[in-house]
C-alpha cells in the first residue's frame, strides 16, 4: 500500500527534511486586519514578528478550510493509496477535526488522521518518523501504531515572556494570566490532555530554562538515544547558546533548533522558548 504523509504548517519542518521525506504541507493562516497570510508560504516567522511590532492589534489565526483538505487528499489519491495526516493538538485548534471530516469526504484515498496532542517541531518529529516508515514500505496501520508508541516518550515544556497572548487567544485562562503578570512569573507550560496548562511557576527566564534543562536530564540520564528540539520565538542567538549547553550535558540526545512560526507565535508572543523531546 503506497502511503504519503501530510502535516500542517505548524510543524515548522525544515524544507530540506520535507523534501527528503516527501512530506506534504497544508497551511494555517494568520490574519492581520482584513488580510490573511498562509504561514510558511506567504509569511515567514521573521516577517511575522516584525509585522506584530508595527500593528496596533494582535493578529488572529485560522485553520485550513475542509475543502482545502479534500482537494489535497484527492490529489494525493491519484498517486497514493493512503494518507497519514498529522496535526497539531485538537485541544488548541480545529485542524485535526477538519482532517477527520475531510478524510471521510475524500474519494479514492484512505485517510488516517493523527492528533499529535502537541505542536511545532515535536509534531514535525511525528511527521518525519511516519514519512521514513512510509518510504520503507510500512503500511498505514503499522505507521499509526508507531506514532502512538512515540506519544508515550514525548515531552515538551515552554515559557512565554507575556501571558496576555495566550489569554487573549483563549489558550490559557484569564485568572492564570493575571496572576502570572502580577507576580512577574515566567510559568513553565506544557500540554496535558491536549490543552496548554501551567506546569510550575518560576520567577525568571534564566531559572525557567534551567528547570527545563533539568527535566530533560531526568529522561536523558537513562542513556537511551533521544531526539530533542529547542524552539524559539525570534530568539535565535539565545537558542544557539542553550544548544551548546545542552549538547555538552546530554551526549545521547540529538538536538536541533526550530522556531515558533506565525500561527503559534500569535498565541505565545515574541520571546517564547521551549524544549521538546522523544525517544529515537
From TrEMBL:
This is DegV family protein. Transmembrane segments: none annotated. Gene3D superfamilies: 3.30.1180.10, 3.40.50.10170. The keyword Protein biosynthesis does not apply. PROSITE patterns: DEGV. InterPro entries: DegV, DegV_C, DegV_domain_contain. Keywords: Lipid-binding. It comes from the Bacteria. The keyword Glycoprotein does not apply.
